[in-house]
Design brief:
alpha+beta; 60s Ribosomal Protein L30, Chain: A; 4-stranded mixed beta sheet
Length: 219
């Protein structure tokens, strides 16, 4: 009985607390369900309804399939090799086809060195890649940002120097906000535009047929 009485008393205290205006008048309605990112679901829904998420994924997959997305660097260097420049030129050629699309370059390092130094080095590598893409005619506003993961996302888990970890990766991240193409069905419009531009076929060459006329033949 004592336990039941204690439980009832606790329930009563909770009920009184719920009725106390001081427990809710100082908060906005719905604040108890806002975990700090309340706008993210709305943004996600909007991007989904307008086709931005699906289009971004589709273009990202296509970009990764059609051009190399990664370049590598020498140890402790952010200088672009000729091989890296050639890869970035291929990326720039692909990017120019889609003026509606934004890209992001992620910088990485191997596991040698401190976290702070490697984050700075990864950022320098990302900036070097972005600068070269800009030099190839890509607007800097379309290269959304440069991000350094430093040594936190290695391809190969090894504490020693590893070229495959010293890299930048270029990815599709979304669409230019003020571009008139950023509407419902944007990816369909992009694909259709590309189809029309690529659908011009050369006319078949006409072969002139010559016939010999027998001068002795009548008209």
């Amino acid at each position: 009985m004592r336990a039941v009485g204690t439980l009832l008393a606790g329930v009563a205290l909770l009920a009184l607390a719920a009725c106390d205006p001081s427990t809710f008048t100082s908060r906005e309605a719905g604040s108890e369900v806002d975990e700090g990112g309340f706008g993210n679901p709305n943004m996600n829904n909007q991007m989904l309804m307008t086709g931005q998420i699906e289009a971004t994924v589709a273009l990202g997959n296509r970009f990764a399939k059609e051009v190399p997305t990664t370049i590598t660097f020498a140890f402790n260097s952010a200088e672009l090799s000729e091989s890296a420049r050639a890869t970035l030129r291929k990326q720039a050629g692909w990017i120019r086809q889609f003026p509606e699309v934004r890209f992001r370059v992620y910088g990485h390092t191997d596991l040698v060195g401190s976290n702070a130094y490697n984050k700075s080095l990864g950022l320098r590598r990302a900036k070097a890649a972005v600068a070269y893409l800009v030099s190839q005619g890509i607007g800097s506003a379309r290269l959304e940002a440069v991000v350094s993961y430093g040594k936190t996302h290695p391809v190969i888990q090894t504490p020693g120097p590893e070229e495959r970890n010293r890299r930048t990766v270029t990815e599709v991240t979304g669409f230019v906000g003020n571009n008139p193409m950023v509407l419902n069905g944007k990816y369909a419009e992009i694909v259709f535009r590309e189809y029309v531009e690529g659908a011009t076929r050369p006319h078949p060459e006409t072969t002139e047929i010559k016939t010999e006329v027998d001068p002795s033949a009548g008209n």
